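Board notes (copied after class):
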Amino acid sequence: MLKQLQNGEIDSIEIDKDAFYEFREVLVKHPFFKHFRGDAKQNGRIIYTYLEIPRS
């Protein structure tokens, strides 16, 4: 899913609170980690998007 998001095949990834820690463990090891942005929503959902310019 991260590769699809990075390649623009999908616009976002929605992760629920039950899968958050498992997903984050994979995400922080990704070489383009700083390009992914997570926005917290209600009920513990997080919407991840890909940024062309890495966050600082």
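Comment from the instructor: The first strand starts at residue 13 and ends at 15. The two ends are 23 Å apart (CA to CA).
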